[in-house]
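Field reference: sequence -> structure
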Amino acid sequence: MKFGPVPIDEAEGAVLAHATAAGDKRFRKAHRLSSEDIAALKAAGIGEVVAAVLAEDDLGEDAAAAKIAAAMSHRNIEVKPAATGRVNLHAGASGVFTVDAGMIDAINAVDPAITIATLAQHAPVEKGQMVATVKIIPFAVAASLVDSVVRICGGREIFAVNAYRPVTVGVIQTVLPGVKPSVLDKTLRVTEARLARSGGRLTAERRTPHEIAPVAAAATQLARDNDMVVIFGASAMSDFADVVPAAIERAGGTVVRAGMPVDPGNLLVLGTLDGKRVVGAPGCARSPKENGFDWVLDRLVAGLEVTAGDIAGMGVGGLLMEIPTRPQPREPAPQPARSALKVDIVLLAAGRSSRMGGPNKLLALFDGEPLVRRTASRALGSKAAATIVVTGHQRERVRSALGGLEVELADNPDFADGLASSLKAGIAKVAPDAAGAMIVLGDMPGVSSKDLDSLIDAFRRSGGHAVVRASHQGKRGNPVLLPRSLFAAVAQLEGDTGARHLVEAEGLDVIDVEIGQGASIDVDTREALEGAGGVLQD
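Structure field:
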């Protein structure tokens, strides 16, 4: 493949590197030029274009990505159609993701033109969540390179979603003087919720003294009738011969591992009894927050083997959170005051209003004011530090409607490529010291400055780490506030893809803020716009 300026007379069959306008016609990036396209470009006075010219042995980006994806062996994975040189692969079931890292590394070492990215090993996933993506970087790649990748893919499984099984679990809680029944009741509720997310079911509970013999007897009984036994000790394990590991051995079982390099979760015990798994839960498992117990439980429920070596290998990435009540807490990292966390607004105003049949909905008048100006004014009236407006379609008219407002403008020449291009253009303008960016759609007349402030306040209360979404009657809507940790992922989006799947894939906390009907009202059609009080302008 050759890339660079190409004389228009030699450009038939070439692939455009950039969106190009020829009079009233607009050709998208990655468009393959036909003879009719060449004539239109000539008529517009264009003498050359920047394009990719494919060699005879090249495969186009979509064909190459599709061929690689088709060569992969996997389980419980749904393969999406190729688009813009990318094939996304999604979970066909909820479960635990496993991947052959050696195969992934070998594929990525073939040539920088061919890439594959996946979720982390043993990541928990929901059905429909994206777990991997194949991406061809240039517009085409040599067929020989694709064949090399196909050979690597052949012969064994590259990744899988190990589906959760509906296991039954019996719980033992030991009791010491002073242990409140309310603590035990809460532990039971938290455990039931933990199991429910993967289809498991808590079938029985036994409360025993914190002694080896009664715990061993209860474990024997529960192992007989359930797939798994979980033991919550009233006192944390302080020795490998303490009550929980000793009770597993007294019952005739085997302790696989006592202690794990995951914090919180250090004091977990894993054993077997009559072919069933027995887990001595660490104290942190009484809380619904993620801890080492979740890592082991998810794998067991997904039918994966967990060995002593597996647990020993969990240290990298195993530092999950600080617990301030420890006698010797780790040195806290300095954090800005939550009230000072800076948020910029990215207002998307580049779309073509295609469902309107001609007029630009962002220029429709609401109480005599263009919709885009109304939305920008409300953004400026919020607690956001800056408002960035992304323009594209009819950019001059949109910018004129914003005249006099203190907004920063971001041009998106590739707006016709889809939503992702506008998101990237806006995020690129966000201030380096901003903790997050709120994505505001230009066509939502019911969202007020107060609503935007509610989202910013919730984001600040989270410490700037959560995704915050507007909602209405429990249904997610817009705007959405993204923490800075997602900015790099936004930069990788392609096509008409928004940030929703990033929120799911990254596993960040999500806070939904009820702001009323405004969260769900956009004006994509004439009927919707007029129903909201707007008047279209030609």
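Note: Residues 181-196 form the longest helix (16 residues).
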